Amino acid sequence: MIDIDNLCMNCMGKLGDDHVCPRCGYNDETDFQAPDALMYRAILQERYLVGRAMIVSGEGITYIGFDLELQSPIELREFFPYHTAARVGTQRVAARADKEELFEEKLREFLDHAKKLAHMREITAISQIYDIFEENGTAYTVSEWHESISLRYFVERSGGNLHWNAARQLFMPVLSALGSVHENDCGHYGLSPSSLRILPDGKMKITGFEIESTRRSDSGLTADLIAGCAAAEQYEDDAPLDEATDVYGFAATLFFALTGALPQDAQKRMHDSRLMIPTAILKNIPPHVITALANALQVEPEKRTKTFERLRAELSAAPTVMASIEETASIRRIVSQQPQQERRIKSPRKRAPAFLWFILPFLLTLIVLGSGIWLWYTKTIPVEEDESSLISEPVSSTAPEQSSEPESSSLPPNAVPIPNLVGRNYDELVAEGNSDFRIMLGERKFSDEYEEGLILSQTPSYESGKYGEKGDIIVVNVSKGESLIELPSIYGYTLAGASQTLSDLGFTPTKVDVYSDYIDRGLVVGYKDYYTGDKVSYGSQIIIEVSMGPKIED
Predict the structure, then answer these.
(1) Could you tell me the strand order of the sheet in which 524-527 lies?
(2) Statement to judge: residues 459 and 535 lie in one domain
């Protein structure tokens, strides 16, 4: 039997002689448990050892643990909705005053949801639940533990974005698994770069399943909605969640993997639903993948890709091209057979069947249309110009004075001068909505020269006398303003919450432990070297001071 006093509560390896884990650096004497979590080394069901609280969510607390019978690490989930329940003593959980009925209702939901997941053992891309039990006035699930890293970290470590071929190998098995989950009348509704995790063998696992009540904003529990990944209906009262909701979250996460950034929050996209892809990345994504993402990231559910089966078809090949190729091949087969039929009709007295005079014009029309579609496809990005389009509405080319103008005979009939957009306000330009060029947003960059919202550069660039064709795309980069960013208040945050807030602003957070007589242990005191409101350069490392509680004098 393993010596539980010598187990690392962070990774379940063996501690060293100095109470420090040689594997992960955990210090058994100074690394404290999260507030309101079960104590280190608590035992449940006389079998499961409780380790460190890894995740605190609206549903409860997820711990690393240890199965004393199987002698292996586990994932232990405790139903503990912190705004609805409270810890009584060291282990028991009780509903807060006036929350008893809500607590019991959501506890039943937790158990029912866990039982559904436990019955999906054939789906290898999700963590397998192998025990469900009630204890301490609440409920728990036990799942296998996997050493893994988040997709977010994997993408960052891979240079900031993945090539489509690499992403396809990771995402397609997960896509199939999610389709099976919904066939079993269950959903995730929290898919994100954090809930998809990469295993040592290179495969991706779906984690972070929670009850539906924590994946919407109107359930009475604290909502766990990931900005950029949560669909619009998750913010609406009583709106149904279904497979299309998870399609949105999956597509947003794939979008992150390919571009290094999530789409804007769905609530913001209700007013401006365009997707933003850096120019350098856009050219490396197959057009049919862009089309599939645009369809799957429709803000309005009724316009969105409805099923994972349909999304798989759109991601596997470009439907327009495939249809065109198949149609053209059919036409060629019919046309190639025609001379043989004519050779068999030798008598001048016999005329071709009348129906051929109706079929032949129809076939010729199809050939012309097919060629037109193919030429259009190879020249443009195949994304529908609706509210999920990567391309904005066409804008005017208001051309400056030309010092010299080529002879009209050398220009195509639909030629228009390329406008100079640098220095113009991007939002105002899009709002004008005229018809010469289409504007695509490339990247937003910091600039000390151009105010926020002004266009920094464009492709193709403006040159006097330079022309393009009407309807061409101009990709623009837009200023984010100065590179100094104001530090927000993080006083009283959890370390995870403060780190996420700073990461979203572009900083690199780290932490240091300090004593505090005023802030509870585990919560943030403030910044080590800065004050709230200070302006700091984008990308800077920010040290967060985390309370160890008051210093106890010997």
Answers:
(1) 508-514, 541-547, 524-527
(2) no
Structural domain includes residue 554: no
Q: What is the number of other CB atoms lying within 10 angstroms of the CB of residue 185? A: 7
Same domain, 536 and 520: yes
Q: Is 165 helix (H, G, I), strand (E, B) or coil?
A: helix
Where is the domain boundary, 99, 121, 144? Answer: 144
105 and 185 share one domain? no
Q: Which amino acid is at 203?
A: K
Range of the domain at 433: 391-399+414-479
Same domain, 276 and 166: yes
Residues near 322 by Cβ (< 8 Å), separated by ≥ 6?
none
- 463: in domain: yes
Helices 354-379, 319-344: crossing angle, 10 deg rounding: 150
Q: Are residues 460 and 518 in the same domain?
A: no
Residue 86 tokens read as 């409270």
- Which backbone phi and psi does 146 adopt, to 5 degrees? -125, 125
Residues 246, 188 share a domain: yes
pTM over 0.70? The answer is no
On whether the CB atoms of residues 444 and 477 are closer than 8 A, the answer is yes
List per-residue pLDDT tens for the chain, 554 residues long: 678 999 999 999 999 888 899 988 999 889 999 989 999 999 999 999 999 999 999 999 999 999 998 899 999 999 999 889 999 999 999 999 999 999 999 999 999 999 999 988 888 899 889 899 999 999 999 999 999 999 999 999 999 999 999 999 999 999 989 999 999 899 999 999 999 999 999 999 999 999 999 999 888 898 999 999 999 999 998 899 999 999 999 999 999 999 999 999 999 998 888 888 877 888 889 989 999 999 999 999 999 999 999 999 899 864 444 444 344 444 334 334 444 333 333 334 444 454 444 455 555 555 545 555 444 444 333 333 333 334 333 344 443 444 444 444 466 677 888 889 999 998 888 887 666 777 877 677 788 788 888 998 887 888 877 888 787 778 788 888 877 888 999 988 888 888 888 887 878 788 889 998 888 888 999 999 898 888 888 777 889 999 998 887 75
